[in-house]
């Protein structure tokens, strides 16, 4: 009789500093900058790009990423830990959206005798984010950072925090709510609790700034699942006169066992 298959943890982590595409006035695909990925067996890796520039549209002084995955033992418990980070310094997009520094950080661990992973976003931050030269004040959700470490805790938060549920049901404020029942496997929301700016021609819509004659900027967007979380610090959907879609500061973290 064959021995039962050994349970093995399969790590999953990836990160990038920036990528995007312009559709007008020029058509240009920008390949992923400072990308790195973690093998399923764990390990560590990093990547870095310095002094990136495309025409006068977008530039940054440095973009670097790091991924790692390893076992950690405490007594009879084995923790499968994962860390993934993405940092961009001196970011400038069309001289409209700028930041001294963007940091996306996702740490997690998994125990075989539990059904879900534990997460922390501590270290994630915006430094001197500006729109049109005007400061953007960003208050991040501390509960999502450290206290709501598991998927079940996030789902319970939906029942007690009306503002959080409102964001999760309609993250883009389209007026069409999503059903978040017991079978919900992933929740899209944002780490932003509050944000504001006095920049003219800018309107806040949830975790989005709508900028007149520019487009939309999404802040700290995250997709939450039982064994995976993603975080994108800036996502840009451009309108007239420049078109395209861009992401800056993205991480994906953790993994799951098999069988």
Features:
mainly beta, 10-stranded antiparallel sheet, 3 helices, 19 strands
Topology:
Elements: E1 8-11, E2 14-24, E3 28-33, E4 36-37, E5 43-54, E6 58-74, E7 77-93, E8 97-110, E9 118-120, E10 125-127, E11 130-131, E12 134-140, H1 142-147, H2 151-160, H3 162-169, E13 187-190, E14 192-197, E15 202-205, E16 208-211, E17 215-224, E18 228-238, E19 243-258
Antiparallel strand pairs: 1-19, 2-3, 2-4, 2-19, 5-6, 6-7, 7-8, 8-9, 8-10, 8-11, 11-12, 12-14, 13-17, 15-16, 16-17, 17-18, 18-19
Structure characterization notes:
This protein has three helices and 19 strands. The chain is mostly beta strands and 259 residues long. It has one domain. The strands form two sheets. Strands 1, 2, 3, 4, 13, 15, 16, 17, 18 and 19 form a ten-stranded antiparallel β-sheet that branches. Strands 5, 6, 7, 8, 9, 10, 11, 12 and 14 form a nine-stranded antiparallel β-sheet that branches. A hairpin with a 3-residue loop joins strand 7 and strand 8. Helix 2 crosses helix 3. It is globular. The two termini are 18 Å apart.
């Amino acid at each position: 009789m064959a021995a039962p298959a050994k349970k093995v943890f399969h790590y999953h982590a990836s990160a990038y500093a920036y990528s995007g595409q312009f559709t007008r006035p020029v058509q240009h695909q920008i390949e992923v900058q400072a990308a790195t990925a973690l093998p399923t067996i764990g390990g560590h890796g990093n990547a870095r790009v310095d002094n990136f520039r495309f025409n006068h549209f977008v530039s940054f002084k440095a973009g670097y990423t790091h991924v790692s995955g390893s076992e950690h033992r405490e007594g009879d418990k084995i923790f499968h830990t994962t860390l993934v980070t993405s940092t961009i310094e001196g970011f400038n997009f069309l001289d409209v959206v700028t930041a001294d520094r963007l940091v996306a950080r996702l740490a997690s661990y998994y125990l075989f005798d539990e059904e879900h992973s534990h997460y922390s976003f501590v270290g994630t931050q915006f430094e001197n984010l500006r729109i049109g030269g005007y400061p953007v004040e960003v208050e991040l959700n501390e509960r999502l950072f450290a206290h709501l470490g598991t998927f079940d805790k996030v789902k319970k938060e939906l029942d007690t925090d009306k503002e959080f549920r409102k964001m999760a049901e309609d993250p883009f404020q389209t007026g069409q709510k999503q059903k978040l029942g017991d079978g919900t496997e992933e929740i899209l929301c944002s780490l932003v609790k509050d944000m504001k700016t006095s920049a003219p021609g800018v309107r806040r819509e949830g975790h989005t700034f709508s900028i007149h004659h520019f487009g939309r900027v999404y802040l700290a967007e995250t997709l939450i699942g039982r064994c995976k979380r993603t975080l994108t610090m800036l996502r840009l959907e451009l309108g007239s006169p420049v078109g395209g879609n861009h992401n800056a500061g993205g991480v994906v973290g953790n993994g799951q066992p098999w069988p």
